[in-house]
Amino acid sequence: MLFAFLTIFFTAFSLLSYEILLTRLLAIINWSHYAYMVVSMAMLGLAFSGVSLVLFPGFFNRWRDDAILLGCFLFSITIPLAFQLNQKLPLNYLYLLWDWRQFVYLGLSYFLYGTPFLISSMILALFFLQYPTRAGQVYGGNLLGSGSGVFMAIAIMYIIPPEQYLAAIAISAALAGFFWGMHSSSTLRKSSALIMFALVLLLQYHMCPTSIVSNVSEYKGLSWLLRLPNTKIVHRLYNPLGLLHIVEGKSIRLAPGLSMNFKGELPPQRALTIDAGSPTPVINFDGDFNELAFMGEQIFSAGYQLVETPNVLIIGAGGGSVVTLAGYHKSKSITAVEMNSNVIRAVEDVLGDSFYHRYRKLNVKLIIKEARGYLEETGEKFDLIQLNPMGSLLASASGVYAQNEDYLNTLEAYQLFYRRLSDQGIFMVSRWLQTPARDGIKLFTTGFHALERIGTKHPETHLALIRSWDIVMLLVKRSPFKQNELKTLRQFCSMRNFDVCYLPGIKEDEVNQFNKLPQDIYYLSAKSIIHPTTRGEFYTTYPFQIKPATDDKPYFSNFFRWAALPHLIKTLGREWLPFSEYGYLVLLATFIQTVIIGGVLILLPMGILLKKDTSLHSSFNKHVWFYFIALGFSYMLLEMALIQKFILFLHHPIYSLSAVIASFLLVSGIGSLCSKRFLQKSVGYQIIPFIATLIFGIFYAFSLDWIFAQFGWAPLYLRLWIAFLIIAPLAFFMGMPFPFGMQRITETGEKNTGGAWGYNGFFSVMGTVVTPILAGILGFKIVGILGCLGYVIAVTVWVRKWQ
Amino acid sequence: MKVVSVIINLVFSLFLIVPSVIGGPVDSEKFARERSEMVRAQITRRGIKDEKTLHAMRTVPRHTFVPERYLSSAYADRPLPIGEGQTISQPYIVALMTETLHLKHTDKVLEIGTGSGYQAAILSTICKKVYSIEIIPSLGEKAKQRLKNLGYENITVKIADGYFGWEENAPYDAIIVTAAATHVPPPLIKQLTVGGRMVIPVGGVFQVQRLMFIKKKQDGTLISENICPVRFVPLTGSH
To answer: Which residues fall within 8 angstroms of residue A446, CB to CB, at 6 or more apart?
Structure first.
């Protein structure tokens, strides 16, 4: 059984590593939202495996041993092969709306990426057939392997470059086959396993990509940079937080928010990209501020006009240009918070020699941490807090981040920034100026309502909104703006052709002077928001979702409103995606595709089969459906909601993803191994896992924010352990109901193992896809409660039908 | 590895060929009809009135500027990929940018970002002289050859960094920037004649959302205007 257990373990291990690393790879070469869509669809292969077992039971029963062996090696080979074949497809996601051929390529892409999921999942399902009375152990091995696979995936991101991800997973998948060969008593099978293992090792050398850069979409920032003449990558660094490239070239000139009145020259720059995305400038700075005259002409300098020699906090050091800006304005002290240590390394250490060690020379206090975590624990006050505009600008690019949690642009975050301001302190945040207007308006609503929540009597006296031709910027002052400050701000703007959209006491004839809009929608919106009589109607009639994001719905970049959907569908492909909500559209498209593809590949064949096969029909009870559907859907709903919620605590999606998934799988695996003990006892014991899941689930829905607040001070490694301890009891009990059901199917002689596996798999994928949509509408609390409801259904079936 | 590579290429050639074949054969008469329909349905209907622009859009054979695999969509209401991460803009956007520049027959125009050469060809049918700069050599060479073959003699293309403009031929009556920019390059503003006009599309690939129209006033200062080609749900709230 040891070798069999190892086969299960390594198959599940490779499967989860593949899921996570493939998502990373696709996010690098394409975009994260498309990666999410492709991997979600590919995971339907998991569910289809159950159908295959039901469709061809004779074959799999007869050739089970060989099928597992062959399956392991096929799994191993198809991992790099699927990727390589996909690179040959002329698939252009951006062109999906217009070219029907793209759908053919997209379907092929799903099929190719789904194949390894299908094969690995079939191997695992075959083990349930192989060991019908040891469902708990099989499920336990599966979950333990999966949990370890998550850890492995994260560890790999520190150790090896993205090109080698697939080879590493393929080898671990081949190991599963090797162990299954060792498990066999047949010498032929043993030697076949050895030969195939050696063959896989050899093939990896040839089949894995040699360079990730050549696979990056031609429409991404890194590709654009490399097309410029004489540009080249001078350095790259990687870790789970991103693949970082530094590109050098004379044609790189990035200066968002620059006044059109600026007549001088820009200093040479390099560009920094993360995950091959939009470039941010790394200004060549040799210590001479005279070379940086353009910085004084950027809109980001606005706050510096109002506070002399400030103590500055930069949130997101990025390429260092905002830090240099603080130096340019002779700041008394500069604190820069940056999560990704590689970004600091790139700017300071790698480029330091040629680009001046700016952080050291400017006496910058560097904090490698998440900003909110840092601000929660520090008692320090700042005269200026600046959210790195480059970071915000990346996030506001064309709505592709609609599904991304952004805990720096919520009401709670703005309240925190406000509390850390000195008496005359100012907080600054900027976004791209979008048409139709949405980001800038949402900045204003967030600032306004954050001030209201704090108890500010007249929030409108603390706010200013200005814009250049491409950037809109909000300034929030701790105390009301004074007349002389407003005068200075007006002068700063008029000298640089920036428009004032809102200032306390602004008059209509002051707005829309330089960069003319058909009407200054920012001014009109601000006016509506500050008046309680017009605010409600404004929120309900504005075509975009511009109410502030909160920690419960942390989607600042989601501007999608359901009311706008009919118009969007009507104009799809004809207008320039006026609503530009790619991210949210991709979520909806993924949901629709899951229903259609899952329906056709899984539900339809199962339905037809049930009608034809009377023996199966007689044994296929509806309660089996409900039980496994409820479990699959609810498990993922709870897990996904916690992944998104824990980002606030662990400060980065990748930490949250790995900690939550790994904790769930490992502890659920242990729960699964213990399930037999509960099953052997009375019904009172058997319902404990269901009831405990309900209790923990509802408790966490209401108490997680409070728990997070208590441990916000803890370092990352401690917070990871705390996350594990929070999740462990819930996950332990959630690991039991599935093997309960599988065991009961076997005991009652029902032929539904494959069906149960398939339905569970399909609705697990559905749960994954639906959670971000539901969270955007209802918030995490409600999603958590909905997840618990599934366990109410499952326990009802268990008590009423299987007792 | 070679065998694997050959198999992969064979399989994929099949997948790529089938959709192209289904696209069907096309001829120049068909293109002329499509072009006329394009102007009627996509351009005049959306409010483009300038006769010079409409004439240019009716005259320039757009299909000669698109890659062969997109021939059947040459006159469709959409941008088309031309390789190197670049696109040939949607016909309406080309027309709108052209109309926005208020061009005269005597004008000298500078284009930054030749791309396929289509926009330059449109401009050349209206203006006296068009200078066009492309930074990506492969695109620039192709466009240069294409424009020469099509007989556009009043267009000069050079491969260079458009950020610095083309000082030898300055000043220009109009400048059109079709490449992505995070700011308006100061050298271009310098090379614009007093009273000159500049237009820059703003937005990501395949999703042009607005145009920036910049005018250099008599005193050398600039005013800019956002031209929003996107018709969107009107605001119904009271503001």
So the answer is: A409, A410, A411, A414, A548, A549, A556
